[in-house]
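quick one: FE2/S2 (inorganic) cluster bound model?
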Amino acid sequence: MDSQADYVTVARTDQIPPGICRTVEVEGVFLAVCNVNGTYRAVDNTCPHAGGPLGEGALDGEVLECPWHGWRFNVRTGERPENHEIRVTCVEVRVLGTNVQVKIPFTL
Ligand code: FES
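yep, here:
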């Protein structure tokens, strides 16, 4: 049961086209929202290596590369392909009409 859960709109679908990642702010917290071939994913925007902005990274399939030093993360699982021990937190996303929404509350 998660009757306390709700969703908040962070973007329109056309603002994050396929293959693109954008930084969004949800209640003062930054997330990287990615469009993986029509499926939207959201992860913590802060790279666990040294705090780089993942939302400004390049997306290749479901793998997002940090723009600072190139660490890569699977945005579906949160894991680094190179080291599954290192990961970013994933946040649940849904599309409602033309709105991309993330589930709140979430914990990063
Ligand atoms: S801060 Fe992301 S790879 Fe270094």
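Residues 6-104 form a domain with the Rieske Iron-sulfur Protein fold (CATH 2.102.10.10).
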